[in-house]
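stuck on this fold:
=====
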Amino acid sequence: MYAVIKTGGKQYRVKEGDVLKLESLPAEIGSEVSFPEILMLADGDKISCGSPFVAKATVKAEVLEQGRHKKIKIIKFRRRKHHMKQMGHRQNYTKVKITSISQ
């Protein structure tokens, strides 16, 4: 059984036991979070698609870690002006493990 969930403006195909790095969620480490926005649910040959979401279906996950991704560097450069600006950015993430998918 697998599901397609929507969280943080992105879509993920998940099944029980998967470990994902999602956009930052306001949850404590060890707590349980649920994702009610399920776009599709599949169990063998039985597939149910939502419009926009599948009714009465939830995906539950356990929060494993709160962290930050590696730093990316951004360089802005103006040609012929001898001007360069360097910046960096680190995005927060939440690492979760999918515990259950229910219909």
About this structure: The beta strands are 2-7, 10-15, 19-23, 32-35, 38-43, 46-49, 58-68, 72-78, 83-89, 92-102.
